[in-house]
Amino acid sequence: MPINLQPLTISGKEVLPLIEGGKGIAVSTGQCSGAWAAAGGVGTFSAVNADRVDEHGNIVRTVFHGRTRKERFEELITQAIAGGIAQARIAHEIAGGEGRIHMNVLWEMGGAERVLEGVMQGAKGLIHGITCGAGMPFRLAPLAAKYQVYYYPIVSSARAFRALWLRSYRKVPEWLGGVVYEDPWLAGGHNGLSNSENPDAPEPPYPRVAMLRKTMNEFGLDRVPIIMAGGVWWLSEWTDWLDNPEIGPIAFQFGTRPLLTRESPISDAWKQRLLRLKKGDVRLNPFSPTGFYSSAVYNDFLHELYTRADTEMAFVDHPAGDHTEPFSFGVRNKTVYLTRHDKKRALAYIAEGRAKALPTPDSTLIFVSEEKAREIRQDQLDCMGCLSQCKFSNWATNERGTTGRKADPRSFCIQKTLQEIAHGADPDKHLMFAGHAAYRFAQDPFYAGGFIPTVKQLVQRITTGY
User: Which residues contact 321 (CB under 8 A, 6 or more apart)?
Assistant: First the structure.
């Protein structure tokens, strides 16, 4: 079906209403975002611990020398700012004045405001917009206005946007460039599911986006575009959203499809894995140390986390009710009490090689191998504060430097695994974020025979409706 794809004013310039979604930790780079902008759309590089480059353009991997978390945290901020500036310059040069360049930041990353300030100062005039999600970025608006760039909050409901508007954004409306609706059941990476929403009961996006538009119109934002993110593949499937007064000005964000381009920095092994995905291979899971649900490819990494979770059992410190069976664990041989059924499970796990019982903050135990226990402990010790607060390590960017809860071994070090997969490690052994439509790589004739397009070829293809 032919589409009527009209240019849209985004961040002060008429461009194609096609936006590259930002993918954190060295996956959305200046090279791919610059190419997307050069093709006439909006390119987005990630400022979430972006790669620095040397004078020859070679990647400088992040290395931490500090002995304490706070020292490593300061190193993280310094290197993140330098990396963000480097990627902004690369994107600007490649774009050659075409399209727009945006920067993506996670509000819940460690030092988010400091990184934003540092990159905006060091890359003045090179960045036209900031997209920001993973939390409630109330202070995004005044920060963007300070540097006279447009801001694009990422929300998953009209209610979330209403809260942001009433508390903060209504004071700086002139720099609100658009609102990204990121569908919590379709998008890749972290998802904004609320406590009232069921991860296993997806809701269609149209009514939710129509409600977002209705809310925005109440505030006089009828000309501010909504950017649909999550599940977008062929625009021919979205024609009823175009020129639709219930939806209003609309742009479409592509996060997963740009992974499979020649400019994409991900490894060939990762790209080939994408080409083989089947429907259902991407799962919404609860393991992220951020506390958010996230969507990732079900691989060896995710399988281990699910298996770890399957061993969980509740304990009490004193015999009570059905918890009558003593069980000792840890270097101090702490004795707790399990149910009779769970005591049998515990002994079975130990017999099969999951000899290490690890306590969680919720008075439960999980069982892992000695090797996995050592890995978990070392990763917690190596924490560098990449999140504003972390379930896995109990780090928090407050005066105490802690969430006040015990570190949670049911989660993982997200900085470590995303750095590894972004720089060539086996994609089956690390967290592989992807949107739920990623299985369409294997079905779309555009990719027949393992074809991998340039960003320009992909954007041209998308404008045809397919």
Answer: none
Coil, strand or helix at 78:
helix
Instruction: Answer whether residue 343 shows pLDDT above 70.
Output: yes
pLDDT at residue 2 is higher than 70: no
> From residue 439, how far is each of 277, 281, 447 by CA, in Å?
5, 7, 12
Class of residue 267 by CB neighbours under 10 A (exposed 0-12, middle 13-18, buried 19+) = middle
For residue 43, the 8-state DSSP code is: E
Cα 148 to Cα 130: distance, rounded to the nearest angstrom: 11
Both tokens of 270, joined, read 């990762």
Which whole number is the average pLDDT over 265-272? 96
CA distances from 108 to 248, 313, 389 (A): 30, 30, 8
Hey, what are 422's tokens?
């972004």
CB 70 within 8 A of CB 292: no
Rounded-to-integer distance, Cα 357 and Cα 366, Å: 6
Instruction: Give percent above pLDDT 90 in the chain.
Output: 88
Please state whether beta strands 42-46 and 100-106 pair in parallel, antiparallel, or not at all (unpaired).
parallel
Write the single-letter amino acid at 177. G
Find all residues with CB under 8 Å of 135, minimum gap 6, and list them: 106, 107, 108, 388
Tokens of 316: 């009490």
- Name the burial class of residue 34, with classes exposed (0-12), middle (13-18) and buried (19+) by CB atoms within 10 angstroms of its CB: buried
Helix-then-strand count for the chain, H and E: 12, 20
Compute the 3-state secondary structure of the chain and give helix, strand, coil in percent, each to the nearest 5. Answer: 35, 20, 45
Tokens of 42: 């909006």
3-state secondary structure 271-327: HHHHHCCCCCCEEEECCCCCCCEEEEECCHHHHHHHHHHHCCEECECCCECCECEEE
The pLDDT of residue 57: 83
CA distance 353 to 363: 22
Whether the model clears a pTM of 0.85, i.e. scores above it, the answer is yes
Residue whose entry in the numeric block shows the structure tokens 């991998």 = 452
CATH fold, domain 8-276+438-463, is TIM Barrel (3.20.20)
Write down the residue that tokens 């020292």 correspond to: 71
**Which one-letter amino acid corresponds to residue 113?**
E
* Nearest of 76, 86, 49, 434 to residue 260 by alpha carbon: 434
Q: Which helix (H) or strand (E) holds 74?
A: helix 69-95
Closest CA to 359 of 322, 404, 327, 401: 327
Contact 186, 202 (CB under 8 A): yes
Domain coordinates in residue numbering, the chain: 8-276+438-463, 300-429
Q: What is the mean pLDDT of the chain?
A: 95
